[in-house]
Amino acid sequence: MILLLAALLALYDVEQGSQTYIRNITQRNSTAELLRDVRSHLDLVENRLQRIVIEPVQKDVQKLEQALTQLSLLLNHLKQLLAQDDSRESQAIANQLQADLDRLHRSGMELVGLRTEVERWFPAIRQMREVTYPHSQAALNQLDILLAEVDEELSAEQRLRVVMSVSTLRHFWSAMASELRLFVSNRFGVFASDASVGMRSRFTNVIYYAEEVKAQINTLKALHEEGLLGFLGAESIDEVESRFTGWMRGAYQISVMLEGSGWRRDVVMLQQTIDPLLEQMRQRLRVINSDSENQSAADITRLTNMARQLTLTMGAMALFTIILVLLAYIFLNRTLLKQIARTALALKQEAQGNLRIVPPPAKLSEMRDLVEAFNEMRRQVHMRQKHLDHMAYHDALTRLPNRVLFRDRLEHALQIAVRDGRRIGLMFMDLDRFKQVNDSLGHLVGDELLKVVAERLQRVIRGSDTAARLSGDEFAVLAEGINDRADMIPLADKVVQALEQPVCIDEHELRISVSIGIAIAPEDDHLADDLIRDADTAMYAAKKQRGSAYRYFAQEMISEAAESLQLENELRQAVEAGQFLFHYQPVVSLWSGELYCCEALLRWRHPTKGLLSPAVFLDTLDDTGLIVRVIDSLLDSLVDQQKLLSRLVGRPVALALNLSPRLLNDPPFCRGLLKRLLEGQFQTGSLILELTEDTLTHELAEANELLQQLKNLGARVALDDFGVGQASLNHLRQFPFDLVKIDRDFIRNVISDSNDASLVQAIIHLAHAFDMKVVAEGVETKGQLAFVQNLGCDFIQGYLIGMPLSAEQAQECAAVDQASGGLFEPTEFLVD
Question: Is Transmembrane among the key words of this record (predicted)?
Answer without folding.
Answer: yes
